[in-house]
Amino acid sequence: MATSNKTASLGGHGEAVTRRDFLYVATAATGAVGAVAAAWPLINNMNPAADTLALASIEVPLKGIEVGQSVTVKWRGKPVFIRRRTADEISKAQAADKADMPDPETDAQRVQKGHEEWLILVGVCTHLGCVPQGQQVGSDRGEYGGWFCPCHGSQYDTSGRIRKGPAPKNLVVPEYTFEPNDIVKIG
Amino acid sequence: MRKLLATAAVALASLSGQAFAEGSDVKLLPVSFSFEGPFGTYDYHAVQRGFQVYKEVCAACHGLSLVAYRNLQQIGLSEAAVKAIAADVQIRDLNDVGEMADRPGRPADRFRSPFPNELAARAANNGAYPPDLSLMIKARPNGAHYVYSLLQGYEDFAKLTADQKKAMGLAADFKMQPNMQFNKFFPGHQIAMPKPLNEGQVTYNEEAQKEGIKNDLPQLAKDVVHFLAWASEPKMEERKKTGVKAVLFLVILAGLFYAVKRKVWADVH
Amino acid sequence: MASTQGGPPAFNNSVVRWIDKRLPIFTFMHHEYGVFPTPRNFNYWWSFGGIAMVMLIIMIVTGIVLAMNYTPHIDFAHDSVQRIHRDVNHGWLVQYLHQNGASFFFIAVFIHIFRGLYYGSYKNPRELLWILGVVILLLMMATAFMGYVLPWGQMSFWGATVITNLFSAIPVIGNDITTFLWGGFSVDNPTLNRFFSLHYLLPFVIVGVVVLHIAAMHVAGSNNPIGIDPKGPQDTIPFSPYYVTKDGFALIVFLTIYAAVVFFAPDFFGEPDNYIKANPLVTPPHIVPEWYFLPFYAILRAIPDKLGGVVAMFGAIAVLFVLPWLDTARVRSARFRPIYKWFFWVLLIDCFILGYCGANPPEGYFVPLARVATLYYFFHFLILLPVLGKLERPLPLPNSIAESVLKKSAS
Questions:
Q1: Is A13 labeled as catalytic in the residue annotation?
Q2: How far apart are CA C122 and CA C113, in angstroms?
Q3: Does a cis peptide bond (omega within 30 degrees of 0) precede residue C241?
Q4: Where are the alpha helices (DSSP H) in chain A?
Q5: Is residue C403 part of a domain?
Q6: Does B100 reside within a domain?
Q7: Is B68 touching A (CB cutoff 8 A)?
Q8: Domain membership flag for residue B92
């Protein structure tokens, strides 16, 4: 801008100008650093607060969930599907490992070793964010026996992988760990 | 200009002096805390001991509703210890079938208040309301020193001599009300809270005993005040640390600006 | 809008040129802030207008961020402010900046006002400029008052109760007005909600009036320490870089003091009682308003009559509106008014005495002291200034700003 040009050309004696310029640049740079440092707390204010983060992980007791049963819990404002799979569902999922899928993954990659019974998924269709059906007894589970999204017809298998329909990705597996006393900690 | 600044300084000093002189006429007990002063920090051993005092004594009547169990990790307790402390407490919450029911506490819960509401608290305490302690240290003038003194300010009114009464500025017709205790430092000198802390009431762990920490009244009072000071401003250390950086930075920037101003103005004067 | 120096600026950047041709904001900035001819003899008291503007910006920015986590409900307001302190990232910093920013905004504005009083900046042709400034002060006071209510502590609640009750002093309709202000029969949730709404709105109104205030200043040009008009280019220098750097330095020093309070004594200006949640059944023993209201509060209490006190308090600001016509002196700057100069300092001390009385309970010697100080305040504006302007013999004025500057640097 014209103003700064004027600033720089004021005075105008060779050596003095360089020293002066250095001082201007140093001051402007320091000021800019300060402005950024001052802006950060204001921006960081909008990140999740400590009490929100404290609720970022939940503990779900697995006791009482029968084989073949599904439960839905709320985690970070979204549904999480917990299904205790039957032996049949597990073998069907493992058998399909080599099948042609949009987002190839083996069943072993989607469950924890030694806990193959438990399939834990974020219940949000990877297409446009609807909640797929299949949690309740008798609801439509689609051709592959997993979940069926009523919005645009995406079909997931018993490993939560996308097999048919517009969704591009498998249902997301959240981070979780098995804790003592039949408790799973999600998040 | 200098005159203006001097006047301003005098006025501010007199205003702040006034604010701190309120309350009791009696001089508070001498004590110093590590968290005082511009660079003071919390002594987390003292905070932990104070937490023990709060938990074993104060928590029977006083809430700490702004502090969550997870915050205890900041004073140096392990995650497992915090989980255990929280799980020991029953929190009233909606259960799966939509009824209010007790469940074990979680670290994310805030400290459970001993009474469900103010009316229940008053009903259980002869009409007096034990205040929440979350901000107690900030909510009283010279809070840390005041609470420290208050905890040790109980006297047997019947045994006070006339001279002592006069020194405290008690009116001639001063009479103790029923269910009230005499306290030197409480404004009005009549407090509903019975003497809460006594020597040896809390037993500190071996580690503290090895350090030579006694459990006499001044020590218990000092520790619990330390804990409450932390509870009233858990971010104090972050504030002071950031402050040192911010002020140093601004001083440097002011120096640079001054140099620039001098150079720019060199050809005007 | 304003007087300009030289022709239109030539911009090197083609994007700037393109925009400027269609919307000449760059030319405007260049004329009004770049080369704007400014008296060459400003002292640092002239920096406080700019400092006040920066404080206004800081208040708005921190306020917007705070509002994202604040809950305007009587059951949650106090705890939500504490949640900002404890759980929100850097929330403690933003809240302390805002809480103390109000005090430092007032410090800057009070200095700015007293500078105007000393150097006669309210006189012809700057009467409207001054009146707009008083409007800003009034809006600031309303905004600050409502902001202080939001944390819903004891002082918030009782301050709101006392101040809104002032309106009940109005004859006949007073009680209806108070009920209307409260939206109920006492300060309660509807009051808190409307105060939050207005506290968010008014700062932007202030911004609008500040724009007018600056526009008026650019028409008349700035006053200066010797109070005579610039007579030519030798009396002025371009605003940039001279006053950009000078004001910049003053600003950083001011912000350093502000930061020191925010980080090391954030509750210095506050009251411990406001860390107690509002309780409509218990009034704290001493209700004190924020320090910047203390002189006005003292005037309110000095008059032993409810309506009289309210009238006097608002009158204390009302006299400022007519000040340009109360002061009959032709000479602007107190430098050349040997008697007024002393009365200026007496007025300043009087304001401090009023503030001191306002901070103390109205007992003992504070009662007569506050009355005398109140009387003097009005005496200064209503009697002294009109009379003094006629009687006082001003010192000889220098011929020009340049001459006075050269003489000073020679000695």
A1: no
A2: 10
A3: yes
A4: 2-9, 14-44, 50-54, 87-95, 107-110
A5: no
A6: no
A7: yes
A8: no
Quote the ipTM score. 0.91
Q: Print the domain residue range for A163.
A: 53-186
User: Which residues of chain C lie closer than 8 angstroms to A46, CB-CB?
Assistant: 65, 68
Sign of CA dihedral C229, C232, C237, C239: positive
Cα–Cα distance, A59 to B82 (Å, whole number): 16
Please give the average pLDDT of every successive group of 10 residues along chain B, which has 269 residues: 45 40 67 94 96 96 96 95 94 84 91 92 91 96 96 91 85 86 92 94 92 93 98 97 97 96 87
* Closest to A143 measured CA to CA, from A114, A116, A164: A164
| Cβ-based neighbour number of residue A164 at 10 Å | 16
Residue with token string 């979350």:
B134
User: Chain A contacts of C11, Cβ < 8 Å?
Assistant: 1-2
Q: In what order do the strands lie in the sheet with A176-179?
A: A58-61, A183-186, A176-179
Domain identity same for C248 and C130 = yes
Q: Touching check for A30 and chain B: CB below 8 Å? A: yes
Q: Give the pLDDT confidence of C140-150 residue by residue, as tens digits.
A: 999 999 999 99
Contacts of A160 (CB under 8 A, 6+ apart): A81, A110, A119, A121, A146, A147, A170, A171, A173
Residues of B numbered 170-189 whose beta carbons fall under 8 angstroms of chain C's beta carbons: which are they?
187
Distance CA A159, CA A93 (A): 6
Q: What are phi and psi of A87, to 5 degrees?
A: -60, -35
Specify the amino acid at residue A112: Q
Q: Are residues B42 and B170 in the same domain?
A: yes
Q: Are C81 and C270 in contact (CB under 8 A)?
A: no
| A81 part of a folded domain | yes
How many domains is chain A built from? 2
Coil, strand, or helix at residue C310? helix
Side-chain-facing half-sphere of A130: CA atoms under 13 Å: 15
